[in-house]
């Protein structure tokens, strides 16, 4: 896949930004953050914190459009991207060597860096379709599942099949799929993205949509079959919602190449985690980007620099066997 860099900041005047005594031995002069497709939460969130870190640390850095969590694990593992973002499901599959991008390769050079937010799984259709529930999705419906290999594309088709939905699978970036839904080329979009999803917010401005929640029984079925937890999309997330919408979710974490200098990763974590209000200004999903959520990672080894920051600032008691190189 061709990557398009969105770069921010400059390397000039880098020295002294984080204190005159700071040891920057081995730090890269620039960095990239693997995100996902434009129109999705990963791109907005990831490009935002890349910009913030570049500005604060005086480096050249930015976000890259990618195929999402699975590809980000591969890019960070190989070092083609210093940082990336992933969800717990794709992370576990990548560590086990079942990432479809490189079957058989255990991607153990991608380390946990900081908690981001939960990814709710939600369904959107045009109001004119008359679809108001999962059970009303017609046989053979054309469903957009996001970019190939994304969290949504990896898990949502399986979820739909588990719930007895028969569909035609379509892939693409969220913005593109939103346009196809509006043009009648799709019947439903199955989103797995932090809320509010920019593509859904844009659709709300342009047309009437139904944001479809899971029933209690559907939610229980999905939670039993997949590595997800109970979630509720708040009513104020979208103008369309009049009440909270029942959903399921999967945690997202920022990841770093495990061989990056500990002092560099610690400094990046400090920029992101030390001012939540600033992060929420980048994207509302960052309300969950707080130090106390460090314990939501039960899959990936921690980068030593990140583990040190959370031990010092969040009282994290991370087992040694969960820290890379220890």
Automatic annotation (TrEMBL):
Keywords: Signal. InterPro entries: TRAP_TAXI. It comes from the Bacteria. Pfam families: NMT1_3. Residues 1-20 form the signal peptide. SUPFAM superfamilies: Periplasmic binding protein-like II. Gene3D superfamilies: Periplasmic binding protein-like II (3.40.190.10). PANTHER family: SLL1037 PROTEIN. This is C4-dicarboxylate ABC transporter substrate-binding protein. It comes from Meridianimarinicoccus roseus.
